[in-house]
């Protein structure tokens, strides 16, 4: 028995403060015992006062102090990490959780770091019983659970899963954050100096387990018109992580979506000439940013004078007014088609992500059987329909079939 069901590590970070404020409101009076943790006791006390946390327990632990992290894990059933960029600050905590059998979730979208964690600690986590679940924010819960939900509906309606699924972002309203930008900048730095990493990033199955057997060529959207969406499509910046999480879910579920499963994500920019121009601008903008971020002096100028800094992000009003709507179109091998939607009622990167992460941690702590095996899971394969129920009831998400 552990003292706490959930410990929020990095509670003083930008997203951490949003998470603990939501948890203070959402789980008040409920049977979920949780605490806040971070490297500064003074800042933790400030956050506790700000959220009205009363005598909420505080744990002091630096990300580089393995003994302090181990002491924290000794008290917790689940550690929820809000400390990024994870490639810079996240490994020690994953290592300690894997070694101590402590369950863990985070909101990383850093595919290269996830691959390193799998290579180094998956065997350890399986042995200890630790259940590690990355990508429990906007990347990649709506995508991973959206495909999971669509495939469940396909099985119920057609008796088979869809061999191809396309996701189009129909609405996306929210502010950029310094933490997300810092993660993208760090990935650009790593890729610029490592040819092997650049090759790995081009592999859609890079985080699938060994022996997965998937070989089908996946489609990468640039600028194209899609008749089913009735819209021009442009690249979606989160597709790089989301598609890989979905393929890992398929692999962990023994190819439940099929060995020839295809999945793509894109931004929907509208019909006609104006939609095409918007798609071209998005492609040019994303490409220009990635090129600029890979050039050291240009990257320095961007970081110093242009881009938001870590700890900066959308205002409370921007979070409240944010929205997103994702459309999924699935097609079976026989040509039968199904459309589903996943929508959220806050800005995707913070307002909605904080609620998703908190509910994922609660689900991991309370809803998963004690004999569930350890290892590195995805939201769909470990949390699945239980998390969908939580998200629809208490996190402002909606999963629905289009009639």
The total count of helices amounts to 15
The Cα radius of gyration reads 20 Å
User: Kindly state the mean pLDDT as a whole number?
Assistant: 92
Order of helices and strands: EHEHEHEHHEHEHEHHEEHEHHHEEHEHE
Give the termini distance in whole angstroms: 47 Å
- Unreliable sequence segments: none
The number of domains: 2
Order of strands in the sheet with most strands? 3-2-1-4-5-6-13
Q: Label the structural class.
A: alpha/beta
**Largest β sheet strand count, sense and barrel closure:** 7 strands, parallel
Q: What characteristic shape results from the CA principal axes?
A: globular
List keywords for this structure.
single chain; 403 residues; Rossmann fold; 2 domains; 7-stranded mixed beta sheet; 15 helices
Structure, described:
It is built from 15 helices and 14 strands. The protein is an alpha/beta fold. It folds into two domains: 4-138 and 351-396, NAD(P)-binding Rossmann-like Domain (Rossmann fold, 3-Layer(aba) Sandwich); 141-347. A hairpin with a 5-residue loop joins strand 11 and strand 12 (337-344). Helix 1 (14-26) packs across helix 14 (348-366), helix 5 packs parallel to helix 6 and helix 7 packs across helix 15 (379-394). The radius of gyration is 20 Å and the shape is globular. 48% of the residues are buried.
Short description:
The protein has helices spanning 14-26, 41-51, 66-75, 86-89, 91-100, 111-128, 141-158, 178-192, 195-201, 239-252, 272-293, 296-306, 316-321, 348-366, 379-394; strands at residues 4-9, 34-38, 58-60, 76-81, 103-106, 131-133, 164-173, 224-226, 231-234, 262-270, 323-331, 337-344, 375-377, 397-401. With 403 residues, the protein is of the alpha/beta class. The chain has a 7-stranded parallel beta sheet, sandwiched between helices.
């Amino acid at each position: 028995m552990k003292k706490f069901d959930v410990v929020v590590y990095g509670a003083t970070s930008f997203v951490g403060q949003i998470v603990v404020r939501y948890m203070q409101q959402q789980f008040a009076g409920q049977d979920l015992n949780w605490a806040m943790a971070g490297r500064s006791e003074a800042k933790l006390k400030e956050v506790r006062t700000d959220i009205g946390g009363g005598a909420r327990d505080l744990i002091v632990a630096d990300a580089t102090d393995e003994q302090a992290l181990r002491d924290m894990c000794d008290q917790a059933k689940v550690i929820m990490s809000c400390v990024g960029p994870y490639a810079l600050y996240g490994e020690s905590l994953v290592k300690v959780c894997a070694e101590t059998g402590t369950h863990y979730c985070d909101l990383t979208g850093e595919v290269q770091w996830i691959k390193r964690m799998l290579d180094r600690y998956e065997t350890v986590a399986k042995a200890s019983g630790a259940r590690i679940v990355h990508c429990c924010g906007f990347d990649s819960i709506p995508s991973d659970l959206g495909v999971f939900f669509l495939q469940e509906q396909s099985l119920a309606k057609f008796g088979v899963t869809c061999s191809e699924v396309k996701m189009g972002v129909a609405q996306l309203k929210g502010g950029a954050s310094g933490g997300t930008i810092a993660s993208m900048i760090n990935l650009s730095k790593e890729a610029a100096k490592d040819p092997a990493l650049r090759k790995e990033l081009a592999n859609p199955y890079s985080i699938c387990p060994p022996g997965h057997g998937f070989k089908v060529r996946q489609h990468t959207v640039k600028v194209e018109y899609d008749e089913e969406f009735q819209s021009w499509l442009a690249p979606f910046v989160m597709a790089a992580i989301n598609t890989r999480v979905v393929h890992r879910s398929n692999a962990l579920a023994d190819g439940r979506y099929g060995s020839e499963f295809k999945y793509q994500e894109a931004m929907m920019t509208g019909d006609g000439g104006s939609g095409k121009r918007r798609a071209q601008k998005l492609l040019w903008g994303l490409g220009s940013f990635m090129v600029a971020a890979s050039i050291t002096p240009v990257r320095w100028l961007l970081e110093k004078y242009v881009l938001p800094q870590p700890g900066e992000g959308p205002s409370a009003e921007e979070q409240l007014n944010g929205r997103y709507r994702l459309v999924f179109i699935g097609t079976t091998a026989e040509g039968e088609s199904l459309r589903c939607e996943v929508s959220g009622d806050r800005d995707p990167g913070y307002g909605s992500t904080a609620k998703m992460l908190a509910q994922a941690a609660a689900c991991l702590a309370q809803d998963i059987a004690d004999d569930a095996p350890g290892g590195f899971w995805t939201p769909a394969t470990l949390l699945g329909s239980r998390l969908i129920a939580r998200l629809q009831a208490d996190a402002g998400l909606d999963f629905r079939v289009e009639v």
